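User: Please check C-alpha coordinate order:
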Amino acid sequence: MDPRIRQRRSAVRRREGQRRLRVVLAVVGCTVVTAATLTLLYSPLLSVRQVNLSGARHTSRQAMLRAAGLDGHPLMIRVDTRRLEQRLDALPWVATATVARDWPSTVGISVRERVPAAVVTTANGEWAVTDDTGRVLQRSTGAPPPALPAFRAVEQLPAPGSQLPASSGPALRVLGALRGRLVTQVLSVDVRPDGEVALTVSSGVVVQLGDASQLDRKLAATQTLLSQVRPPGVQTIDVRVPEDPALVPR
Protein backbone atom coordinates (compact mmCIF):
# COMPACT_ATOMS: atom_id res chain seq x y z
CA MET A 1 0.00 0.00 0.00
CA ASP A 2 1.22 3.45 -0.84
CA PRO A 3 2.72 5.03 2.31
CA ARG A 4 0.80 8.23 1.64
CA ILE A 5 -2.53 6.39 1.58
CA ARG A 6 -1.62 4.56 4.80
CA GLN A 7 -0.71 7.85 6.43
CA ARG A 8 -3.98 9.45 5.34
CA ARG A 9 -6.02 6.54 6.74
CA SER A 10 -4.16 6.75 10.03
CA ALA A 11 -4.94 10.45 10.23
CA VAL A 12 -8.65 9.81 9.56
CA ARG A 13 -8.82 7.12 12.27
CA ARG A 14 -7.04 9.43 14.69
CA ARG A 15 -9.53 12.25 14.05
CA GLU A 16 -12.48 9.86 14.49
CA GLY A 17 -11.01 8.63 17.77
CA GLN A 18 -10.57 12.20 18.97
CA ARG A 19 -14.16 13.05 17.96
CA ARG A 20 -15.54 10.02 19.86
CA LEU A 21 -13.46 10.98 22.88
CA ARG A 22 -14.87 14.52 22.82
CA VAL A 23 -18.42 13.13 22.63
CA VAL A 24 -17.79 10.78 25.55
CA LEU A 25 -16.23 13.57 27.60
CA ALA A 26 -19.17 15.89 26.80
CA VAL A 27 -21.71 13.24 27.86
CA VAL A 28 -19.79 12.51 31.05
CA GLY A 29 -19.51 16.25 31.76
CA CYS A 30 -23.23 16.82 31.25
CA THR A 31 -24.03 13.85 33.47
CA VAL A 32 -21.77 15.14 36.22
CA VAL A 33 -23.20 18.66 35.99
CA THR A 34 -26.79 17.34 36.00
CA ALA A 35 -26.10 15.10 38.98
CA ALA A 36 -24.44 17.94 40.87
CA THR A 37 -27.31 20.32 40.06
CA LEU A 38 -29.95 17.83 41.20
CA THR A 39 -27.99 17.11 44.35
CA LEU A 40 -27.86 20.82 45.12
CA LEU A 41 -31.55 21.44 44.27
CA TYR A 42 -32.65 18.65 46.59
CA SER A 43 -30.22 19.63 49.32
CA PRO A 44 -31.50 21.18 52.58
CA LEU A 45 -29.28 24.14 51.69
CA LEU A 46 -31.98 25.20 49.19
CA SER A 47 -35.01 24.87 51.46
CA VAL A 48 -37.40 27.75 52.22
CA ARG A 49 -35.80 29.76 55.01
CA GLN A 50 -37.64 33.07 54.68
CA VAL A 51 -41.20 34.02 53.67
CA ASN A 52 -42.03 37.65 52.95
CA LEU A 53 -45.75 38.50 53.28
CA SER A 54 -47.52 41.65 52.17
CA GLY A 55 -51.11 42.88 51.85
CA ALA A 56 -52.68 40.82 54.66
CA ARG A 57 -54.50 42.67 57.43
CA HIS A 58 -57.15 40.18 58.51
CA THR A 59 -55.29 36.93 57.77
CA SER A 60 -52.58 35.90 60.21
CA ARG A 61 -49.07 34.97 59.10
CA GLN A 62 -49.46 31.54 60.70
CA ALA A 63 -52.68 30.84 58.79
CA MET A 64 -51.08 31.80 55.49
CA LEU A 65 -47.94 29.73 56.08
CA ARG A 66 -50.03 26.73 57.09
CA ALA A 67 -52.35 27.06 54.08
CA ALA A 68 -49.38 27.35 51.71
CA GLY A 69 -47.52 24.49 53.36
CA LEU A 70 -44.49 26.70 54.00
CA ASP A 71 -44.44 26.27 57.77
CA GLY A 72 -42.45 23.04 57.30
CA HIS A 73 -39.63 24.72 55.31
CA PRO A 74 -40.00 22.65 52.11
CA LEU A 75 -37.35 22.52 49.40
CA MET A 76 -37.48 25.48 47.03
CA ILE A 77 -37.67 23.10 44.07
CA ARG A 78 -40.92 21.71 45.49
CA VAL A 79 -42.60 25.11 45.83
CA ASP A 80 -45.38 25.07 43.19
CA THR A 81 -46.37 28.75 43.02
CA ARG A 82 -49.64 28.13 41.14
CA ARG A 83 -50.81 25.50 43.61
CA LEU A 84 -49.86 27.70 46.56
CA GLU A 85 -51.84 30.61 45.09
CA GLN A 86 -54.91 28.38 44.82
CA ARG A 87 -54.54 27.30 48.45
CA LEU A 88 -54.22 30.89 49.63
CA ASP A 89 -57.20 32.00 47.53
CA ALA A 90 -59.32 29.56 49.56
CA LEU A 91 -58.69 31.51 52.79
CA PRO A 92 -61.80 33.50 53.76
CA TRP A 93 -60.35 37.02 53.48
CA VAL A 94 -58.07 36.46 50.47
CA ALA A 95 -59.34 37.69 47.10
CA THR A 96 -56.16 37.01 45.11
CA ALA A 97 -52.69 35.79 46.05
CA THR A 98 -49.42 35.96 44.14
CA VAL A 99 -46.50 33.69 45.08
CA ALA A 100 -42.95 34.02 43.75
CA ARG A 101 -39.71 32.17 44.47
CA ASP A 102 -36.56 34.19 45.10
CA TRP A 103 -33.62 31.81 45.04
CA PRO A 104 -31.84 30.53 46.95
CA SER A 105 -34.21 30.38 49.95
CA THR A 106 -36.94 33.06 49.94
CA VAL A 107 -40.61 32.92 48.97
CA GLY A 108 -42.65 36.10 48.54
CA ILE A 109 -46.42 36.17 49.02
CA SER A 110 -48.55 39.18 48.12
CA VAL A 111 -52.30 39.11 48.77
CA ARG A 112 -55.24 41.38 48.04
CA GLU A 113 -57.92 40.95 50.67
CA ARG A 114 -61.66 41.17 50.22
CA VAL A 115 -63.56 44.28 51.27
CA PRO A 116 -66.24 43.77 53.96
CA ALA A 117 -69.62 45.01 52.78
CA ALA A 118 -72.23 43.84 55.30
CA VAL A 119 -73.02 42.06 58.53
CA VAL A 120 -75.48 39.17 58.30
CA THR A 121 -77.32 38.40 61.52
CA THR A 122 -79.41 35.44 62.65
CA ALA A 123 -82.09 34.96 65.28
CA ASN A 124 -79.74 32.96 67.55
CA GLY A 125 -77.30 35.86 67.92
CA GLU A 126 -74.71 34.75 65.40
CA TRP A 127 -73.36 37.19 62.85
CA ALA A 128 -71.00 37.10 59.92
CA VAL A 129 -69.10 39.70 57.92
CA THR A 130 -69.43 39.23 54.16
CA ASP A 131 -68.16 40.95 51.04
CA ASP A 132 -70.45 42.14 48.26
CA THR A 133 -70.39 38.71 46.56
CA GLY A 134 -71.78 36.95 49.66
CA ARG A 135 -68.53 35.28 50.70
CA VAL A 136 -68.41 34.83 54.47
CA LEU A 137 -65.23 36.45 55.78
CA GLN A 138 -65.71 36.13 59.53
CA ARG A 139 -68.29 34.54 61.83
CA SER A 140 -68.85 35.16 65.52
CA THR A 141 -71.40 35.90 68.26
CA GLY A 142 -72.05 38.88 70.48
CA ALA A 143 -72.20 42.47 69.30
CA PRO A 144 -71.58 42.74 65.53
CA PRO A 145 -69.36 45.47 64.06
CA PRO A 146 -71.36 48.74 64.02
CA ALA A 147 -69.75 50.31 60.94
CA LEU A 148 -71.32 48.00 58.31
CA PRO A 149 -74.93 47.72 57.05
CA ALA A 150 -76.72 44.69 58.46
CA PHE A 151 -79.34 42.35 57.08
CA ARG A 152 -81.02 39.13 58.15
CA ALA A 153 -81.67 36.72 55.33
CA VAL A 154 -80.47 33.30 56.51
CA GLU A 155 -81.32 31.01 59.41
CA GLN A 156 -77.89 29.36 59.69
CA LEU A 157 -74.62 30.95 58.65
CA PRO A 158 -72.19 28.97 56.48
CA ALA A 159 -68.56 28.59 57.48
CA PRO A 160 -66.00 31.31 56.71
CA GLY A 161 -64.84 31.02 53.12
CA SER A 162 -68.27 29.77 51.98
CA GLN A 163 -71.00 31.62 50.10
CA LEU A 164 -74.30 32.83 51.52
CA PRO A 165 -77.39 31.11 50.08
CA ALA A 166 -79.17 32.51 47.04
CA SER A 167 -81.87 34.05 49.25
CA SER A 168 -79.33 36.71 50.25
CA GLY A 169 -78.94 37.81 46.64
CA PRO A 170 -81.30 40.82 46.69
CA ALA A 171 -79.66 42.34 49.78
CA LEU A 172 -76.19 41.80 48.33
CA ARG A 173 -77.16 43.43 45.03
CA VAL A 174 -78.45 46.47 46.91
CA LEU A 175 -75.29 46.72 49.01
CA GLY A 176 -73.13 46.42 45.92
CA ALA A 177 -75.05 49.27 44.25
CA LEU A 178 -74.71 51.79 47.10
CA ARG A 179 -72.81 54.91 46.11
CA GLY A 180 -71.81 58.23 47.64
CA ARG A 181 -73.27 59.17 51.02
CA LEU A 182 -75.62 56.19 51.02
CA VAL A 183 -72.67 53.90 51.74
CA THR A 184 -72.39 55.37 55.24
CA GLN A 185 -76.07 56.30 55.71
CA VAL A 186 -77.56 52.80 55.31
CA LEU A 187 -77.82 51.00 58.65
CA SER A 188 -79.65 47.87 57.62
CA VAL A 189 -81.13 46.04 54.64
CA ASP A 190 -84.29 43.98 55.15
CA VAL A 191 -85.45 41.36 52.65
CA ARG A 192 -89.06 40.22 52.86
CA PRO A 193 -90.11 36.66 51.96
CA ASP A 194 -91.48 37.96 48.64
CA GLY A 195 -88.03 39.35 47.77
CA GLU A 196 -88.82 43.04 48.29
CA VAL A 197 -86.09 45.09 49.93
CA ALA A 198 -86.23 47.98 52.40
CA LEU A 199 -83.41 50.13 53.73
CA THR A 200 -83.19 51.78 57.13
CA VAL A 201 -80.95 54.85 57.06
CA SER A 202 -79.18 56.64 59.89
CA SER A 203 -81.96 59.23 60.27
CA GLY A 204 -84.45 56.43 61.01
CA VAL A 205 -86.25 56.78 57.67
CA VAL A 206 -87.24 53.51 55.96
CA VAL A 207 -86.75 53.37 52.19
CA GLN A 208 -88.98 50.96 50.27
CA LEU A 209 -87.08 49.75 47.18
CA GLY A 210 -89.38 46.97 46.06
CA ASP A 211 -87.50 44.28 44.14
CA ALA A 212 -83.80 44.55 43.30
CA SER A 213 -84.34 45.94 39.81
CA GLN A 214 -83.49 49.47 38.55
CA LEU A 215 -81.27 49.90 41.59
CA ASP A 216 -79.22 52.78 40.19
CA ARG A 217 -82.37 54.84 39.54
CA LYS A 218 -84.02 53.90 42.83
CA LEU A 219 -80.94 54.71 44.89
CA ALA A 220 -80.38 57.98 43.02
CA ALA A 221 -83.97 59.00 43.83
CA THR A 222 -83.39 57.95 47.44
CA GLN A 223 -80.28 60.08 47.75
CA THR A 224 -82.04 63.10 46.24
CA LEU A 225 -85.02 62.82 48.58
CA LEU A 226 -82.89 62.26 51.67
CA SER A 227 -81.04 65.47 50.91
CA GLN A 228 -84.32 67.39 50.66
CA VAL A 229 -86.61 66.06 53.41
CA ARG A 230 -86.52 66.61 57.13
CA PRO A 231 -86.34 63.16 58.77
CA PRO A 232 -88.51 64.02 61.81
CA GLY A 233 -91.44 64.62 59.50
CA VAL A 234 -90.97 61.59 57.22
CA GLN A 235 -91.41 57.94 58.15
CA THR A 236 -91.00 56.20 54.79
CA ILE A 237 -89.67 56.97 51.33
CA ASP A 238 -91.19 54.80 48.62
CA VAL A 239 -89.06 54.56 45.47
CA ARG A 240 -90.50 51.34 44.10
CA VAL A 241 -91.38 53.48 41.07
CA PRO A 242 -88.27 55.70 40.89
CA GLU A 243 -89.89 58.15 38.44
CA ASP A 244 -92.71 58.77 40.89
CA PRO A 245 -91.36 58.48 44.47
CA ALA A 246 -93.63 59.01 47.45
CA LEU A 247 -93.11 60.29 50.98
CA VAL A 248 -95.08 58.85 53.89
CA PRO A 249 -95.25 61.25 56.88
CA ARG A 250 -94.98 60.09 60.48
Q: What stands out?
A: DSSP finds six helices and twelve strands in the chain. Residues 134 and 169 are 8 Å apart (CA to CA).
